[in-house]
Amino acid sequence: MRDILPDLEQWEREKKSIALATVIETWGSSPRRAGAKMAITPEGGISGSVSGGCVEGAVFEEGAQVLKKNHPKLIHYGVADDTALEVGLACGGTIDIFVKPLDDAHFRALRNVIAEEKAAANLTVVRAPDSLLGKEMLILDDGQTLFGDFGDLDSAALALADEVIASGGTRRAQLAEGVEVFAEAILPPPTLIAVGGVHIAIALMELAKTMGYRTVVVDPRTAFGNRERFPHVDRLIQKWPQEAFQEIPLARSAAVAMLTHDPKLDDPALMLALPSKAFYVGALGSKSTQAKRRQRLLDEGLTEEQMNRLHGPIGININAGTPEEIALSIMAEVVRARNNAQK
Questions:
Q1: Considering only 89-98, 115-124, 171-180, 320-329, which range has the smallest mean pLDDT?
Q2: Cross-strand pairs, 27
Q3: Are 263 and 300 members of one domain?
Q4: Are residues 150 and 266 in the same domain?
Q5: For residue 84, is pLDDT > 80?
Q6: Following DSSP, what letter does each residue of 197-261 receive, concatenated?
Q7: Residues 88 and 177 reside in one and the same domain
C-alpha cells in the first residue's frame, strides 16, 4: 500500500472514484506476491501493479466495471483459462485478484495506521454472500478494531488478525462456510539497529538505507558514535544499550546487529534484544567468542530458546574480508530472515 499511497491521497483530494485491486493468491511463476496492489480511476489513472505488466490492462477494465456497478469482484487468471493469452499471462502461473471500490473511511483509518507506524492487520471478505462481500476490518496488534465488523465472525477475525500480524505476511482463510477472507499485515518499515559505531556499521547502514530500512546506531563512545561517521543514519543514540533500547521499540519489524566485540556493550543489548519481538538478532565474533558469549548470557538468565535466536557468527558465509563485504553478508542475512518471517 505504501507505494501507491501518494496517488491515493491525491485522487481522494480530487474526489475521484477509485477501485483497488489486490493480489490475494498466486501459483507458479506469477511475478507479484500476495498483497500487491493496483489503484484505478475511471479517467485512466493507474498506480501500482498486480503482475508486473501481464494482466494490468484486463484488471483496469474489471476495475472500471466494479466502479460502474459498485460491486466487488474476485478474478482468476491462469494459463489454463481461455483468457490467459488474451490478458498476457503467457509466461505461466495463475493469479487471483480481488477488486473493490475504495472505501473512504477505511482508507483514512488505514492511512493513519501507516503514518503512525502502528502494527495492524487488514481483513477483506473476498468470497461470501453479497451482504458481506467486500467488507473490511482493520485491527491493531493489541486487538483494538479501528474499522469495520464481520458480525458473528468478529472473534474469528480477531484470531486471524493476531496470526497474520505475528507472521508479518498475508493469509487467505475461510472464517466460516462460504465466507473467505484475505488478511494482510500492515507493519512499520523495517529498522536495522547497529550496536557499535565501528567501520562495519558505516557500510551496513548505507546498505540498509538502500534496502529501505530505517537506520539506528547505538554507541555511547563519542569517538565511534558521532555524526561525522554517520551523517545519514535516521537516529544516532549516544547512550549505553540499556538506556538506548528504552527509546527504540524492539518490535517485529526490528533487526539488531551487535558489532562491537565488547561484552560491556554487546551483552546488555543481547539481554534485551533476544527476548524481544525483533525478527533478527546477530552478533559479530568467532565461534569460540560465540560459545563464551552464549554461556555468559545463559548464566545471566536467558533461556536456551532465546539464545537459539542469535545469529552468530553474524552474516551469511561469503568468505568476507573487508568491512564492506562483512556488511553485505550481514545485510543478506537480515533480508533473508525478514523474508522467511513473512512467508
A1: 89-98
A2: 94
A3: yes
A4: no
A5: no
A6: --HHHHHHHHHHHHTT-EEEEE-S-TTTSSTTT-TT-SEEE-S-HHHHTTTS---TTEEEEE-S-
A7: no
